[in-house]
């Protein structure tokens, strides 16, 4: 028999890799004893020594040979001392002590401690092997070293019962340890998953706020750009028009700062919902958005065929508003002077469609380059609302944005 044929006989292979030691490491391999290990080993040695002293006293009463008594005492002392190496050679030590117990009853206490420790710290297969050998030894021992004062069957049954108690107690302790380890791992896993969920929720909230900031501030800043450009290209404009443009710039800058404060306030208020106390746009506020764009000098045609705007779901109305807002912002930046058409229609069961179209720009000189992030954000908004969005250039050089959003019947 070689070690490669029976690798589970190796001391390192006998350890349970799933059971961590008190220091948090696996029980495979050698490690230094902790204070708890010293206390446990000392208690095990003392218990085995007490059991050995009782057996030695009984053996001294019915053995007349002093050499036999001395040999029993020496073997018992050696068996108790051998328990200090049970952590390194658990299976080998348990087998040796099982054989020694057959020859001398004084080593019985050390054998029970070794078997108990083996059942606590090792897998079932080596425990079953050693337990089978120990059961055979419990049957043979009363024959090899009979006790004249006790019947054979009584001695044999007592030895078997003690052995089974040691093995059962050890396996019960092992099962309890494994349960504690499993509960600890489950709690750690649950805590880790909770942290991941919290991080994911925080990331999603930040992405939503970033999209909100883009949609709101881009609209305001393009208004500033339009009126500032008008002042730049018409320095000889009448004072009334200059004052009106300056007033619009001032109001737009104030509104942009106010929107930015409200969004940052949501970030700073952990107890608020996704949008805090800030009023959100709906389909009913779409006309105000168009009117604001017209005041900035845009030519906008609104075709809203939904008369009962209050019945539109909040998320659908808000998404329609943001799509129209982004479409107007893009038209103002990339197609200045072009007439923009905003069409909204649909109903319960059919869904809501919103389309923003603009022809080719009248003057490319005033166009502002874009990054395309707004359209990506609109696509994500439509997908989150359960709808879809498509966009692209038309054949005449214009641009088309169309979205469909569900509206339950």
From TrEMBL:
Key words of the record? Kinase, Transferase
**Superkingdom of this protein's organism:** Bacteria
Q: Does the keyword Kinase apply?
A: yes
Instruction: Tell me what this protein is called.
Output: Histidine kinase
Source organism: Streptomyces achmelvichensis
């Amino acid at each position: 028999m070689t070690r490669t044929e029976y690798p589970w006989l190796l001391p390192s292979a006998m350890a349970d890799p799933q059971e961590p030691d008190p220091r948090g490491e696996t029980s495979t391999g050698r490690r230094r004893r902790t204070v708890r290990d010293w206390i446990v080993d000392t208690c095990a040695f003392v218990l085995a020594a007490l059991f050995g002293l009782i057996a030695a006293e009984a053996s001294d009463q019915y053995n007349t040979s002093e050499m036999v008594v001395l040999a029993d005492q020496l073997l018992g002392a050696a068996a108790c001392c051998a328990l200090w190496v049970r952590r390194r050679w658990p299976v080998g030590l348990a087998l040796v002590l099982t054989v020694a117990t057959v020859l001398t009853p004084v080593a019985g206490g050390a054998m029970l401690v070794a078997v108990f420790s083996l059942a606590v710290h090792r897998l079932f297969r080596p425990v079953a092997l050693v337990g089978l050998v120990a059961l055979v030894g419990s049957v043979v021992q009363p024959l090899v070293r009979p006790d004249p004062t006790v019947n054979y069957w009584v001695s044999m049954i007592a030895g078997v019962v003690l052995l089974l108690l040691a093995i059962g107690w050890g396996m019960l302790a092992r099962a309890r340890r494994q349960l504690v380890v499993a509960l600890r791992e489950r709690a750690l896993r649950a805590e880790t998953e909770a942290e991941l969920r919290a991080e994911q929720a925080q990331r999603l909230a930040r992405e939503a706020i970033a999209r909100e900031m883009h949609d709101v501030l881009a609209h305001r800043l393009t208004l500033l750009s339009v009126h500032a450009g008008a002042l730049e290209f018409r320095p000889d404009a009448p004072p009334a028009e200059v004052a009106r443009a300056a007033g619009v710039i001032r109001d737009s800058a104030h509104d942009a700062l106010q929107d930015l404060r409200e969004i940052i306030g949501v970030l700073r208020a952990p107890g608020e919902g996704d949008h805090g106390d800030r009023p959100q746009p709906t389909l009913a506020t779409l006309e105000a958005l168009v009117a604001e764009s017209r005041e900035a000098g845009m030519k906008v045609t609104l075709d809203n065929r939904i008369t009962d705007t209050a019945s539109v779901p909040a998320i659908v109305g808000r998404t329609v508003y943001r799509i129209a807002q982004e479409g107007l912002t893009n038209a103002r930046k990339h197609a200045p002077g072009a007439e923009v058409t905003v069409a909204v229609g649909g109903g319960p069961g059919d869904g809501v469609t919103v389309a923003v179209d603009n022809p080719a720009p009248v003057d490319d000189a005033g166009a502002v380059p874009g990054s395309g992030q707004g359209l990506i954000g609109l696509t994500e908004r439509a997908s989150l609302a359960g709808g879809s969005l498509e966009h692209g250039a038309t054949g005449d050089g214009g641009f088309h944005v169309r979205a469909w959003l569900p509206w339950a019947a």
